């Protein structure tokens, strides 16, 4: 379970996130929706422990400031970052050792194959395209077998096959009980994935729906109902 309590973040005088609270239950996919600058990435970075903020974040009931919580979540940032001097394979090795997770050669190969990286294993971080870096970043997040998985605009920059694979991965992870939070402004990409949606505007959550509440309504219609027709 992922619990955000009264999260507030200011960048200087700019109030980027304004007393936001929400919960993504175990084994559910939560979607943070909203236009550019709404505060989605700031929330995800705060949960990931990359920013100082006011308020509380619970990961599987543990504060995100605790090491125990940090070990339980995987994070795919909006802009992938890699070590220039490590190969793709070395990134995966580094991550699973750092997290103390035992991973078989077969599991590594399966992941690399899934994201069409098997022939890129020996490429250095600085030799990869943005989309390839994004795929490595997804593989790293999955490798640690997270209980909570956060993906910030994960479909941007991926080719159609990788998008299809990623959607499949998200559904499989959910099936295994992993709690997932995805930030996006691309409604189309998360249509089949969501269980609970949170619509943000100017640092606040202005509306939310669960799949049950929405009945058969399309996520796009719900989004425009909440935002009064503004494009996300
Ligand atoms: N490092 C920073 N320093 C100062 N202000 C920032 C910084 N990062 C974000 N902001 C501001 O915080 C607000 C929220 O930005 P954030 O990146 O969280 O939005 P977002 O919803 O993720 O947008 P996008 O969809 O474009 O990624 C914006 O007003 C932005 O200008």
Architecture overview:
- Residues 2-227 form the ABC transporter domain.
- It comes from Diplocloster agilis.
- This protein is α/β, with parallel strands linked by helices.
- The protein has a single domain (2-227), classed as Rossmann fold, CATH 3.40.50.300.
- It is built from eight helices and ten strands.
- It has helices at residues 40-47, 67-70, 88-98, 105-114, 130-143, 160-175, 211-214, 219-227, and strands at residues 2-11, 14-24, 29-33, 54-59, 62-63, 73-76, 148-152, 179-184, 196-201, 204-210.
- Strands 6-7-8-3-9-10 form a six-stranded mixed sheet, with helices on both faces.
- Helix 3 runs parallel beside helix 5 (130-143).
- It is globular.
- Adenosine-5'-triphosphate (ATP) binds at residues 11, 14, 16, 34, 36-42, 78, 185.
- The site of adenosine-5'-triphosphate has 13 residues, from strand 2 and helix 1.
Calculate the mean pLDDT score and round it.
Answer: 93
- Amino-to-carboxy terminus distance: 27 Å
Order of the strands making up the biggest sheet: 6-7-8-3-9-10
Shape: globular
Q: Structural class, judged by helices and strands? A: alpha/beta
Second-tier CATH architecture: 3-Layer(aba) Sandwich
Write the element-wise H/E pattern from the N-terminal end onward: EEEHEEHEHHHEHEEEHH
| Spans where pLDDT lies below 50 across 5 or more residues | none
Count of discrete structural domains: 1
Small molecules bound in the structure, each named once:
adenosine-5'-triphosphate
Nearest-angstrom radius of gyration? 17 Å
Assess the beta-strand content as a share of residues: 25-35%
Number of helices: 8
Portion in helices:
25-40%
Superfamily (CATH H level) name: P-loop containing nucleotide triphosphate hydrolases
Can you identify the CATH class? Alpha Beta
Task: Please tally the β strands and state the result.
Answer: 10
CATH topology: Rossmann fold
Q: How would you characterize the largest beta sheet?
A: 6 strands, mixed
Keywords: ATP-binding, Nucleotide-binding, Transport
InterPro entries: AAA+_ATPase, ABC_transporter-like_ATP-bd, ABC_transporter-like_CS, ABC_Transporter_VariousFunc, P-loop_NTPase
Domain ABC transporter: 2-227
GO molecular function: ATP binding; ATP hydrolysis activity
